[in-house]
Amino acid sequence: MVTALFYALCVIVAIQAIYYLGIFSNFAFLSSKDTASRKEVPVSVIICAKNEADNLRENLPHFINQNFKKFELVLINDISSDDTLEVMEEFAEKHGNIKIVNVAHNETFWGKKKYALVLGIKVTSYDYLVFSDADCKPASNLWLQEIVNNFTADKTIVLGYGAYNRVKNSLLNALVRYETLLTAMQYFSLAKIGMPYMGVGRNLAYHKNEFVKHNGFANHMHVRSGDDDLFVNEAATKKNTAICFSPESFTSSTPKTTFISWIAQKRRHISTAKYYKKKHKFTLGLFYVSQLLFWILAITLLTFQYQFIYLGAIVGFRFLIQYLVIGFSAKKLQETRLIWLLPIYELLLLFFQFFIFIANIISKPVDWK
């Protein structure tokens, strides 16, 4: 029985090796050299905000001061109860390239945030759309240029990276950043091998024709979240998707500060995964299951004191390739501090993901804000 468990562990480690060396290495070992040429096309930057007055005051100057020739900033007030609209109007008075969309109360019955975004997209003046959030700020004044540089005649969707700010001595903060790193490594890698499946609304861009061709969010308007990942899952292909991961192209934001609020956020995000294409659900699901089984089998065999040389060799090999691939990915995304406690973060994340999966079966997650 114990020997059978060891053979099962070998199979699981082989599956993990295929993921890390066959898939995730496509991003980890990808050259960071910028080969995209500078594009001079007008762009519409879209930010949807709900009760984000303080964040807008702090972050809007970073969007307004982008070193980019021609762009407009479309600000969407999604029925805020604070001073969000007033803050938007203050900035609009000072800057002529700002448009404001004020979503009225009687317009909220249909799609919530997605409907608000549709209203914003309708008023845009330009064909290239770049999305971010009110609680985000660009890492540099070259953010917009770096993202736009990746558009070509064929590449009409650009996936960027939305980082979270580091908070010292916070386990939750480290866990959130580790999950963000792992998720980015996955969607960048799968995009590189021709299987783009998601992007993050904190840093995402696409041509308006893609939005029109796929009828906007119509196919998943009933889903609470997914204005970013579900749209990309539907519209992105091997030919039309590019990735952008230069440090100047990052956005950054402050993550949730309590486990309760973070879990609520993750429940909304994870609830969209069941709407992904079958091949993406299978690929992501198999990776998660292989992670979980690795720990279960490894701990079980260790408990039975199975042959330590063989067990140590197979477990050590798995951690070696994991540290190697995630380490190089973390270097690209400027999160190298996270790799030292990687096994702890992995175990915690697996536990919370399993808990969230069960919680979503029992009850539905709440709407955004």
TrEMBL record:
Keyword terms: Glycosyltransferase, Membrane, Transferase, Transmembrane, Transmembrane helix
GO MF annotations, alphabetized: transferase activity
Keyword Transcription appears in the UniProt entry: no
Source taxon at top rank: Bacteria
Entry-linked InterPro entries: Glyco_trans_2-like, Nucleotide-diphossugar_trans
Domain Glycosyltransferase 2-like: 44-165
Pfam family name, one: Glycos_transf_2
Transmembrane segments: 6-29, 282-302, 308-326, 338-362
Family per similarity comment: Belongs to the glycosyltransferase 2 family.
Protein name (database record): Glycosyl transferase family 2
